[in-house]
Amino acid sequence: MRYSVVWAEEARNDLTRIWLSASDRSIVQRAGDEIDRQLTRDAEGCGTDLPPDRLLAVPPLAVMYRVSPDDRVATVLQVWYRAPKN
């Protein structure tokens, strides 16, 4: 079953700031798109369980999200940029 993915306003704003300040915006865009794809396909099965939330990392982004199984909704609560290690 598929999930609807909703980004909380604060998470959307943070993602916009991350994208605007990125030296390579396409990498941030691809990571955000992949997060949406994974959460849509299986929000309960991807990421790491940190009750009541879950953590999903798709470099260079990581998100904290909450799943509502009865509603089939995944809500992204926080997003942050994780700089690649050199």
Q: How would you describe this protein?
A:
The protein has 86 residues and is an alpha+beta fold. 36% of the residues lie in helices and 35% in strands. It has helices at residues 9-21, 25-42, and strands at 4-7, 48-50, 53-58, 61-68, 73-81. A five-stranded mixed β-sheet has the order 1-5-4-3-2. α1 runs antiparallel to α2. The radius of gyration is 12 Å and the shape is globular. It starts with a strand and ends in a 5-residue tail after the last strand. The mean pLDDT is 95.
Brief digest:
The protein has 86 residues and is α+β, with helices and mostly antiparallel strands. Helix content is 36%, strand content 35%.
The gross shape turns out to be globular
**Biggest sheet, spatial arrangement of strands:** 1-5-4-3-2
The H/E string reads EHHEEEE
Q: Strand tally, please?
A: 5
Strand content: 25-35%
- Give the proportion of residues in helices: 25-40%
Spans of 5+ residues with little confidence (pLDDT < 50)?
Answer: none
Task: Note the main sheet.
Answer: 5 strands, mixed
Count of individual helical segments: 2
Distance between the termini: 39 Å
From the alpha carbons, calculate the radius of gyration and give it in angstroms: 12 Å
Instruction: Please identify the structural class as seen in this structure.
Output: alpha+beta
Mean pLDDT: 95
